[in-house]
Amino acid sequence: MQHLKMTCCNYSFVLLLFILITTNGAIAIDTIYSNHTLKDGDTLVSASEIFELGFFSLGNSSSRYLGIRYKNISTDNIVWVANREVPLNDPRGMLKVSDDGTLQLRSVSNNLIWSSQSSKPVTNTGSNLAAQLLDSGNFVLRDDTSGEFIWQSFDHPGNTLLPGMKIGMNLVTGIKTNLTSWKSSDDPSTGSYTLWMDISGYPQLYIMKDESSFQQRLGSWNGLGFSGVSGSSSHRPYMFDFVSTDDEIYLRYTSVNTSLVTKMILDQQGSFNVFFLNTLTQSLYLYTLTIRDGCDRYGICGPYGSCNIDHAPPCACLEGFEPKLPEEWSRGKWSNWCKHETLMTSENGHNIKKLSNLKLPDSRDSWFNKTMSLGECENVCARNVSCTAYANTDIKGGGNGCLLWFTELIDVREASTRDNSGQDIYISMRNPNTIRKCISDSFIKKKKKLPLQVILSTVIPVLLLGFALILYAWRNMKKSHLKFEDEDQKQDLELPLFSLSKIVKATSNFSINNKLGQGGFGAVYKGMLEGGREIAVKRLSKTSRQGLIEFQNEVICIAKLQHRNLVKLLGYCVQGEEKILIYEYMPNKSLDSFLFDENNSLLLDWPQRCHIINGIARGLLYLHQDSRHRIIHRDLKASNILLDSDMNPKISDFGLARMFREYETEANTKKVVGTLGYISPEYAANGVFSVKSDVFSFGVLVLEIVSGKKNRGFSHQDHHNNLLGHAWRLYKEANPLELVDEALGGSWNVSEVLQSIHVGLSCVQQHAEDRPSMSSVIHMLGGEGALPPPKQPGFFTEATKSESESTLIMPQVLVSINEVTITQLDAR
User: Half-sphere exposure of residue 630, counting CA atoms within 13 Å on the CB side?
Assistant: First the structure.
């Protein structure tokens, strides 16, 4: 028998390690302690013996994987795979609980294949760590003294949802938990489909293909189930639980019968299916499909259309609407919209039409309040001309809560009458185009009946009065109060308006002693409000290149953003020529004040730098994917990363940011803006920017954080490359660790540093399509994603004549392509 040595020097009692001999001679254990290994052929078994963790191959593949499976089920038994992106190529891998507080999967040659990473700091390492497979199927790494989980597999799901697992987002850490399909039955690496929760409006689940194409929407949660989804009644053998707090938003499920073995799988075809265990055959059988018919396909009937699979054709316009293009509609082209038939008015005069038993429309960019009554909800919608519909958020106990739509209503279907899965929705029948037409027609008819003198004597004074009122309102707005209209949300963004006198008092009249720094658009001051709250005041200089448009843009971009790695906007002040933004105060100032300072850099150890890299990545992922709009920052750099009292990084300065709609992936501009050393090649050369432009800037930041050196202005005695080129040379020469900042001493983690350098080089590749997305970056930083070899970076050479005169060179290409030269960059 193979024996596992166990040290328990910190315990007053001895923990017995439960060891079983399996029929094939392999060892089955229930716990792995520090410095113990689980070898290929051995298994880790849950106490109930329902689940086991071990090494396996899939189908005809010779690749080896470490994962969790049902112990006594012969087929479809895999529920989680650790190294799904990087398989082992030999059957001699081993899993180890490392002293640094991570699980490490290594090959026979000791190459790191996969490791766990945790957002929680590990303070107690050594013999106190234990890895265990719980009866729930959750593989955990815990502190054996306190019992606290340091890492758990439930936070990193694959294609399978088990009871107790969460799908959603942690609003504190920014971590999202999604399901991703396998590529094939023999290949568990990430496939084309993702099941994820969108929180840009009222939370709801989507199934997407290739991160861009909506396949199915499971409906919004109505307190009992998913709106319009069959099988969400109380008769189902499993129960969903939707949780929304200030810290996290998620959905999970439990089996009604706790002895019933269940799992939900997102398969390779994009179907999300429920399976149960057949106790007689000891195999899983399919219980239900989430996509049952064509009406479950996302938006099949277009805006203001509704789908009913029992009708032929299945698509029809909602009551009160008609096809915009009848001929195309008759040919089955249902995506070409429906429009209002006529202007309808209900008895109460609010122009509302009630429709029943429907799956509620897509609620992205919606607004909701969980405490409002339906009557209060109606009043809010009636007062807002942009409101297109409203409904209850919760239909339990007669209904409660308010959900408002401000865009066209899409992905509606008639729900099954068998399980009462649909609900009521109240649609506004106000048609702005019709209203304008009625007013215009009425005016024309009256005009024909009135003498010209009467028309002139009536209309001209009205027009002059109207013009005077507009001018007066505009002047007052510029002097005292400013509203910013978000064209997509179609409602004013309301932020606290600070008076100039209050700001002057808080900053001691913008005292030089309170000045925190100077940026391209103006100075930043520290201030203190009367209640004692510290603030940062960004005062745009009167000669600043950031005008009213950039000022509005910064407010619009960050007013509604809520993420721990984004700086929070507290308010603004506009008075006369003064344009001022008020932010939360960051006591540790900006990253560059630590990173590039000879003395302060000694205070920034590797765990802090690693924490900063991960925080910036999570903030960017939120901007690119999880916020209400896709936002491209366009000026990501060390001086725009602020650090709070706990050294948490926060992305700041959104004056150059751009908002994209969901279907937009890139844009083009004639004016290239940003900071030299961080601008991507395609943006500098052709004015094309996308999320991959921010990824390039992030890659530069990562290499700067690792090295403690600036990309621009970097010099080396052996070559003329900038920091990117230097890192690339070291990587090709297999000496990447020479890049590490000397200020770190020897306190850094080799595997984490290598991962960071690899990620940094992957992000600064010449072509945008070669760079990873931020979701892939986070997986790679966590040791979960594949690390394909990077290609040559863009802008890897910098020939410098002087500090004020430099030319950036891409591989064999000068930046003067298409007449966009470096002198045309709006650099700061």
Answer: 18
